[in-house]
Write a structure and sequence with these properties.
5-stranded antiparallel sheet; 14% strand; 5-stranded mixed sheet; alpha+beta
Length: 449
């Protein structure tokens, strides 16, 4: 195996690394809050894997919402949390039967009384054609179910889902924070807690139209649209932009009555007007693209998505459907098994053992390690290090070691515990093809997952 990084093991992270590996073998470890989580009110007992492990993530890595809902409206308060519960074993397996999974946003119990967010509920009928009880959200997955800031997740085959959480970036202390934290708890039929974790539930209202449109930005947008196109949007406020410009993120299956997807309209119009990605995709403070191996000061958005002119042109030509055709990991990470997810996007794709890619690697735009402690807390909880779950780099200098044979000799049955013990209680199948990415990934340094 690779030489163990003595500086890491002997430094401040030693208690975390040992705690994570002990937890993976059923020993005692501290809670995720103690191990670098973002809230002292996080899981009280979830850091020690017993018979079950829960892995949770956000579907997009960042959700955006309007700061107000009385003028031009792009996006509602809408967040989604996904979780998989793994029954530990040899082999382990994702399970849903007989379990209840609940969620709650820590120190955030209400949205409608903060800032101008209450306008969403006041105008929900006009904007979205539905009247919603306060502090409940839209739900494109189950339209009759309206989730709040705490509740029960719904079993969906091999995972649990809470869609349409009406979360805002202001907590109950009045603090603005786009990286809110959700606590996920798994119970059996008797109400016994089986597993618990935290995950980032991110949302930001940092859409900076004011950079070009002034202090009353959203009304100015409507006036300029009316002047240029001949519409009468300003007199019919509030206006949902997606009512004419199709937005697949809100369920549209085509470009809408305007004949132009919202993504094409916005990216195309602003491509030559000095706008930057972080002006709308939050943002100067939020910096939503935060994976240390994938980001830069400007978010590194164009490396994967293309610049604004390219986005608009490819949507117009039909080679890109917004939110449907997205960048693929294999573009940069070729030659490794399971990296090419085919027709499935990263956020929807499954890999090793039926786990979603995000279960081990983290949410899109937030693949661990990231710049945010709340993103890294789950990996630290389970393996004592902010790396992709199961990574050799939880203890070693790199995330690969010296090859599969070396791993089997050092960590096979009866050997030293490894990060694989988060889910696996033993190893009896020597077929390398069944291992994560067939043990083909490239060795990386300290920032890689």
């Amino acid at each position: 195996m690779a030489r163990i990084n003595r500086k890491t093991l002997l430094g401040a992270t030693l208690p975390l690394a040992l705690a994570g590996l002990l937890a993976a073998c059923g020993g005692h470890a501290s809670s995720s809050a103690d191990a670098g989580g973002s809230s002292s009110s996080g899981p009280s007992s979830g850091a020690v894997p017993g018979d079950y492990v829960v892995l949770a993530w956000n579907d997009l890595g960042m959700h955006c919402l309007n700061p107000s809902y009385d003028a031009a409206v792009i996006l509602p308060p809408y967040n989604t949390v996904v979780a998989q519960v793994v029954k530990r074993g040899n082999p382990p397996q994702p399970v849903t039967a007989g379990l209840t999974v609940s969620y709650r946003i820590l120190n955030n119990t209400i949205s409608s009384t903060k800032g101008t967010y209450g306008q969403f509920w006041a105008n929900a009928q006009a904007l979205f054609g539905v009247t919603l009880p306060l502090d409940t959200g839209l739900n494109l997955d189950d339209p009759a179910r309206h989730n709040g800031l705490a509740g029960t997740m719904v079993a969906k085959g091999d995972h649990f889902l809470a869609a349409g959480i009406p979360l805002t970036p202001v907590d109950d202390s009045g603090v603005w924070n786009p990286y809110q934290v959700g606590e996920i708890t798994v119970k059996d039929g008797s109400g016994k807690v089986l597993a618990q974790t935290t995950t980032t539930v991110p949302t930001s209202d940092e859409i900076n139209c004011a950079k070009c449109h002034g202090a009353d930005a959203l009304n100015d947008v409507l006036k300029k649209h009316d002047a240029a196109i001949g519409t009468q949007l300003f007199t019919h406020r509030p206006v949902l932009c997606a009512s004419c410009h199709g937005s697949p993120i809100l369920g549209a299956t085509g470009p809408g009555s305007s004949g132009m997807y919202l993504s094409q309209a916005i990216h195309g119009f602003h491509a030559s007007r000095g706008a930057a990605c972080y002006d709308c995709h939050p943002g100067a403070k939020t910096q939503c693209s935060r994976s240390l191996a994938h980001t830069a000061a400007d978010g590194n958005c164009t490396s994967c998505h293309g610049d604004m002119a390219n986005v608009a042109a490819t949507v117009q030509s039909g080679t890109r459907i917004p939110w449907v055709n997205e960048p693929k990991c294999v573009t940069c990470h070729a030659g490794v098994a399971e990296v090419d997810t085919g027709a499935s996007l990263y956020r929807n794709a499954r890999g090793h053992g039926g786990l979603y890619c995000a279960a081990c690697h983290g949410s899109p735009h937030a693949m661990v390690p990231t710049s945010q402690a709340s993103d890294n807390a789950q990996a630290i909880q389970y393996q004592g290090m902010a790396k992709a779950l199961g990574s050799c780099a939880a203890c070693h200098d790199s995330n690969r070691g010296e090859g599969f044979a070396g791993w089997a000799q050092e960590h096979g049955n009866g050997g030293r515990a490894s990060a694989c013990n988060i889910c696996h209680t033993g190893f009896t199948d020597p077929q390398q093809a069944k291992w994560p990415h067939q043990f083909q990934w490239q060795a990386r340094g300290s920032t890689g997952g």
